[in-house]
Amino acid sequence: MTVYSGPVFDMAANQFGVIADYLAIPADERDRLLLPKRAVVVSCPIHRDDGSTAVFEGYRVQHHLTLGPTKGGTRFAASVDLGEVAALAIWMSWKCALVGLPYGGAKGGIGVDPSSLSAHELESLSRRYMQEMIPFVGPHIDVMAPDMGTNEQVMAWFMDTYSMYQGRTVTEIVTGKPVSAGGTLGRREATGRGVAHLAKRVMTERSIGLNTATAVVQGFGNVGSIAAAELQAMGVTIVAVSDHTCALHRPAGLDVADLMRHAAKHGSLLGYSEELKCDPVAMLTLPCDVLVPAATERVIDANIAGKLQCRILAEGANGPTTPDADLVLEKRQDEIFLIPDILCNAGGVVVSYFEWVQDLQQLFWEEEEVTRREYQILNRAFDQMASRVKRDNIFNRTAAMAIGVERVRAAKITRGLFP
């Protein structure tokens, strides 16, 4: 029995089971590796602008603290529940271990549609959530970051709230802050840049010319829009994009900068063009060299996986591909190169780590240094994954997750079980 449930948690547990079988992990070790160390559920009451009181449920799950403090984003979305947050924390653990960061995984969130809140209500809810979390977080316990529905401004409110209770400025309590409040150059772009960098690496290794390559990007938020812009700057033609409001397709290519301006002004892609609209599900199976699912979990199922016409699947989102789809993709790995989520989107947590280090030291780097170090770490993890794939003749996701799980397991074994 476990308090965690739902399709996303079941998916994370299923993936772990595959890796545990591959690594021959004894049955009595598995629950200790999979189940989170701590889960916190809080009520967050706020005064609404009309004078009424509203209460929202907030969550924070800390998967393990074996390698250091936990690290992970905070999501504001109507769909947020404890099972989803736990799954995201588990994936973050494997991700941090894969790229060699001294963190365990964490995740948090509030079950709310942020678009339903005024600016004042959003600030009140952000501050109340952090206030409720103060007993459970800290720069050496759990460091928050932005995720879906949150941004630099929300992180600044988190940091300010925590700092007011400590009586001093504690910039290192969150990452993804504005540069003016102790953030690092390159953090906002880090995840999208990492996705594009790894996609470029695979294109180069597979002799796919950048100037003739095409890409489809599902999800035009921070990760998807930056990935699209970076790919376009490399010479790749972006033939389709989508967000939660609509999908757009133009075989000759879309103007990503113009799309970003529209989304910034109007809050979404809706209204950009009626002529270019297409079916958002069918968009995933368009012929292209690179497909970037950068939205939510479980968008590529077995049916869609069988219809994919991409050559590279670069997972910008967390958990976009279901376990059933993985079975299909494993059979198609000669056709489609999968860059698994825990590697593909790891640029964000890598640069969050850099931000945390800079805040602790009060010594800040230039953006070129941040990006160089990000790519260096991603390349090293990619090489380790590729070496494992070649050595054991296994699927890319299996190799990447196995490296992460092995490192967490080794640390737990070395430290022992207290008391």
From TrEMBL:
SUPFAM superfamilies hit by this protein: Aminoacid dehydrogenase-like, N-terminal domain, NAD(P)-binding Rossmann-fold domains
Active site: K107
Database matches in PANTHER family: GLUTAMATE DEHYDROGENASE, GLUTAMATE DEHYDROGENASE 1, MITOCHONDRIAL
Protein name stated in the entry: Glutamate dehydrogenase
Nucleotide-binding recorded as keyword: yes
InterPro entries: Aminoacid_DH-like_N_sf, Glu/Leu/Phe/Val/Trp_DH, Glu/Leu/Phe/Val/Trp_DH_C, Glu/Leu/Phe/Val/Trp_DH_dimer, Glu/Leu/Phe/Val_DH_AS, Glu_DH, NAD(P)-bd_dom_sf, NAD_bind_Glu_DH
Sequence ranges assigned to domain Glutamate/phenylalanine/leucine/valine/L-tryptophan dehydrogenase C-terminal in this UniProt record: 184-416
Site entry (Important for catalysis), positions: D147
A molecular-function term among this protein's GO annotations: nucleotide binding
Residues that, per the record, bind NAD(+): T191, N222
Keyword tRNA-binding: no
Gene Ontology biological process terms in this record: L-glutamate catabolic process
Family: Belongs to the Glu/Leu/Phe/Val dehydrogenases family.
Signal peptide: none
Keywords of the record: NAD, Nucleotide-binding, Oxidoreductase
List of residues binding substrate: K71, K95, S352
